[in-house]
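Suppose a colleague, Dr. K., hands you the sequence of a protein chain of 182 amino acids and asks what its three-dimensional shape might be. Before reaching for any lab equipment, you can write down a predicted structure in token form. Begin with the sequence itself:
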Amino acid sequence: MPDKQSKNLVFLSLGSNMGDRLAWLEMAIVQLKQLPQTSWIAVSTVYETSFVGHPAFPQANYLNLACELQTTLAPQQLLAHLLMIEQTCHRQRTIGKRDEPRTLDIDLIAYGNLVLSMPLLTLPHPRLHERLFVLTPLLELPSASRWIHPILGNKLSTLEQLITNTETEQSLTPYTEKVLSL
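The predicted structure, expressed as tokens, is then:
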């Protein structure tokens, strides 16, 4: 379990594909920077990505980014804050539907080297190694090059390379229309 006295490294992935996507991401970052017992470290470039999900339910492109924090909050406490931030950004969840369009999605990707499996929280994120739109932004963060997936035993750069070496329909481009104002 995490040490309650020392700060734990946290990676988050944020995405939006409804409304003013960049504004939702900016609003979330403002709120993340205000989390208790948490230090803000860095944010990645914003990327525009195609929807990765069931082809029968196509959606608008996403804007995605990653950020790095350090916190003494327990993982469940941090998740509660993240869900609250999603709600303030008008995120609506439908039980049983995972691939719905959203104003904001914040995924807790990793909490140090903690391996955890609970009904509402699995760490590290169970599909991290399958998602180029998560891995590419993560690799821009200061601690990402040193982090090793505690289950797979791979660095993030290796996981990204495994995806790019296989056929994938994931498109990912830096979003240059506007830059985050933060």
